[in-house]
Amino acid sequence: MDPHGPGCPDSVLFGCKLTASTKSYTFQVDKEDDSDHILALSVVCLTDGAKDECNVVEVVGRNHENQEIAVPVANLKLSCQPLLSLDNFKLQPPVTFRLAAGSGPVHLTGWHQIVHREDASFEEDDDLSEEEEEELAPIMPARK
Q1: In sequence order, what DSSP letters do the residues of 56-108 get, joined into one string?
Q2: Cβ–Cβ < 8 Å for 108, 57
């Protein structure tokens, strides 16, 4: 099986910076792209130049009713919690990151995972299931 073929994920490094002058960043993909995209956040941290103040980072997305919702995911302060591991917190684009309080700079890092879908991959799956069915042994009647 080709490790880069249909259905296999590609991962690229993701990063963005929120500051007093750039309070938000929107991660989105081309609407015509038929691949599946996942953004897995690993770390949010304060960087050089941050003040000792609360820096609240929110994720703005859509809920199950397609209504906009803002959820705080990190509250960082230089003197007590300068970074937070988000353990590959997975989000589907489009998603906006917003510095709701503080002046930053706050960096968010993670992985942009892309799963390429092609019609051929579904045909391959069908062929495999037919082969598996052929390999099954016939059911024999019980002996009396």
Answers
A1: EEEEEEE-TTS-EEEEEEEEEBTTTBSEEEEEEEEE-SSEEEEEEES---EEE
A2: yes
Q: Which amino acid is at 115?
A: V
Task: List strands edge to edge, sheet with 83-91.
Answer: 9-18, 106-115, 36-46, 83-91
Instruction: Please state whether beta strands 9-18 and 55-62 pair in parallel, antiparallel, or not at all (unpaired).
Output: unpaired
Pairing of strands 24-27, 83-91: unpaired
pTM attached to this predicted model = 0.72
Q: Residues 111, 42: contact at Cβ < 8 Å?
A: yes
Closest CA to 18 of 60, 62, 55: 55
Question: How far is the first Cα of the chain from the last one, in angstroms, to the nearest whole number?
Answer: 46
Quick: pLDDT tens for 67-100.
999 999 999 999 999 999 999 999 988 999 999 9
Distances (CA, A) of 118 to 6, 125, 135: 6, 12, 27
CA gap 89, 52 in Å, rounded? 26
Q: Residue 88's closest CA among 32, 9, 30?
A: 9
